[in-house]
Amino acid sequence: MNIPAIHKKKSRQYRDLEQELRKLRRFMLPKNFSPIGNYSQLIYTKTLAYRILAHAGFESYFEDRVSEVYLTAINNWQNYGKVSKVIPALLAFSGMNMESPPDSIVSSQSSQRPSWDDRLKLSNKVKNAGTSLMFTLKKNHGIREKNLLDMLLRVGIESDDIDAAWLATIDSFGQDRGNAAHISAAVNRTQQPPDPKSELDRVTDLLTGLKEIDEMLNYLMKK
């Protein structure tokens, strides 16, 4: 996606995430990293907490931004008749059947009127697709590849515009977060302890790559 320079300003959500990650780095990770990777059990525990809380920050970012892009597109369409790329993407990835037009605008059974309106009226189709997206955001619990595609493709980001290496890294990060959150401290002590510097480097790389996604979402909001 070719993003004009005017849309490359950081969103509020991105700036909030940057600030939150800076706080987590200051409070949860050691000020100086060990050259041999030797830390106390407290540092290892705080590093796992850093991973979990950083993950929560990324998750909140995606849910908030995708919701913002969707609501902006719906507002522009309903109030100004402006159709952005978000609307067809919303319909395309809603999971609804793309039916051919019916033979008549009159239903043979009056009891079928609600579903008949859904078949006939574009506004109903868009509304139902929006409801599907908001339900997806409400039940979302992660930033694995599946989670991100379920959110981003629905608001118009193309799969080709998502860096594959970045997507693989954040998927791995999401998996590691799940391991840290669902394994007891006693079990964690028997496994390879997390390296604080590696955790920081991974989160920093993810934030840097997220900037491109943020710019695309800016563009979709204004397009």
Structure write-up:
With 223 residues, the chain is mainly alpha-helical. 66% of the residues lie in helices and 0% in strands. The longest helix has 40 residues, at 41-80. 26% of the residues are buried. The model has no long low-confidence stretch (mean pLDDT 89).
The helical percent reads: 55-70%
Beta strand count: 0
**Number of helical segments with 4 or more residues:** 9
Task: Please state the CA-atom Rg, rounded to the nearest Å.
Answer: 22 Å
Helix-strand topology string: HHHHHHHHH
End-to-end distance, in Å?
12 Å
Mean pLDDT: 89
**Unreliable stretches, pLDDT < 50, 5 or more residues?**
none
Shape, principal axes of CA atoms: elongated
Structural class: mainly alpha
Tell me about the largest β-sheet.
none
Proportion of beta-strand residues: under 5%
Summarize the SSE layout with pairings:
Layout lengths: L11 H17 L12 H40 L5 H7 L20 H8 L1 H18 L5 H8 L11 H19 L2 H4 L7 H27 L1
Short key terms for the protein model shown above:
66% helix; 223 residues; elongated; mainly alpha
Summarize, please.
The chain has helices at 12-28, 41-80, 86-92, 113-120, 122-139, 145-152, 164-182, 185-188, 196-222.
